[in-house]
Amino acid sequence: MCALNKQKKGFALVELIVVMGIMLMVSGLTIANFPAFRSQIAVSIALHELQLSLRQAQAYAIAVREFSPAFTAPICQPLVSPPARFPPYGVSITKNTSTYVLFADIACAVKTIPPYNKQIYNTGSVYGSEMVATKVMQGGAKVLSIDGCNGMSCIALDIVEVVYQRPSPSIIILGHSSVWASYTWVDITISSQNGAFTKVMRVRTSGQVSIQ
């Protein structure tokens, strides 16, 4: 009579040890890389929210969003005294900070801007606060650098303002280094809290916003 060999089902001790070792290795790598992953996510979210804020300012300007019904001037135009009821809107961004401001140009600085030698966003306007909202980057992300460019020439800036005004389809980009000046495009570099991860947003006067 032939004896039937019965195979035992399940894991052998060696197999179990190998599987546990692999799981521990994967867990260790995941934990070790988590800070870097978190930094990348924080920068990506900050760029996405900044892009949304720029689009929000553009939408407010195109849709002729009312800032205050108490203001008598309809829009910013020559021979009309501010404050404007339906002003241009923009975003003011400062280097080495984790905040930026969505604002309304109720003082109509855009109509007196040429030759583009002064700031548009006025924190001490005689007509009241121009701030619509202050945005805060999460996860320790911040504005590492700002570069304003014309042609092949670029210069480091400490502040940039991107302003949308109706009915013009283009935008105004003003930046401050030692003086205020206008630029064709601007590169805004966002970094993680430890500076290990960075990404660049490029904004052009054509209205194009891209992430490098």
Automatic annotation (TrEMBL):
TM spans (from-to): 12-34
Keyword terms of this UniProt record: Membrane, Transmembrane, Transmembrane helix
Domain of life from the UniProt record: Bacteria
InterPro entries from the UniProt entry: N_methyl_site (IPR012902), Pilin-like (IPR045584)
Protein's name according to its UniProt entry: General secretion pathway GspH domain-containing protein
Source species of the chain: Candidatus Giovannonibacteria bacterium RIFCSPLOWO2_01_FULL_45_34
Organism taxonomic ancestry: Bacteria, Candidatus Giovannoniibacteriota
